[in-house]
Amino acid sequence: MNLVVKYYVVRVSLLQPLFGLAKSLKSKMDFPEDFNQLELLNSHGHLIPRGANSMWTESTEQEDGEMEEETEEGAHSEEWYLQKEGALIENPSELVLWAAEHNRLSTLRRLLIVNPSLVHGSDEDGYTPLHRAAYNGHSDAVLILLAAGSKVNNRTIDGWTPLHSACRWSRITVASLLLQHGAELNAQTNGGLTPLHLAASNTGSSKIACAQTLELLLSQRHLKAGLRSNSGETASEVASRSGPLHFLFEMVEDCVSVVPET
């Protein structure tokens, strides 16, 4: 066995997915520029149990200006936020949704202290504050809402859970948090789409974030990657026509978990 891989296995006692190990250790050790954590998974993935807690967080790398543009488009002044809050002050059910969507943490906390039931509210399409925080990638807001009792598997009118929302927009940190709090990995929408289907179809976000979201889902022990949507497609088939990340499915196809099924 390669000495670096042996170090990984001994150090963490087989408790982290290899994706997360490679990412974490690469930042601390002197690896060559062409080091590929996915190749490492392909060659030694059978040593790591599927479903161990992920260490993924959203990449801070910027790719072709994609993340910079997204940040600039979503930036507003504090005055703008205060004006919006003021306009909704008499409608707490709307304000809590807005605060979750825009990561207004102090407003969110204040509303939930005054009226804890607001955490269970939703808009006309069934999106809860947790859905809105999830699809915008606001991990702190997600934690506040979960601590306040938000149901992690609430569904919209179309059957979307917060995990669907996070994976559709490649919100890797939020997706990982939701999974750690019991999000249903293989939940299907009214159209039969799983979070994996949505992650596989996402070509609009940063390529790095898209790849990381797929890696997170594919490393889960209880993933049912073969589930088909109402149109008859698996997530792998969606990925094969949607972009360049289908190879991720091929790389993990033959990986065998060292943890026996129960």
From TrEMBL:
ANK repeats lie at residues 125-157, 158-190. Keywords: ANK repeat, Repeat. Pfam families: Ank, Ank_2. It comes from the Eukaryota. Residues 60-72 have a biased composition (Acidic residues). InterPro entries: Ankyrin_rpt, Ankyrin_rpt-contain_sf, Multifunctional_regulatory. Residues 52-73 are annotated as: Disordered. PANTHER family: ANKYRIN REPEAT AND SOCS BOX-CONTAINING 15B, MYOTROPHIN. This is Ankyrin repeat domain 49. It comes from Cynoglossus semilaevis (Tongue sole). The lineage of its organism: Eukaryota, Metazoa, Chordata, Craniata, Vertebrata.
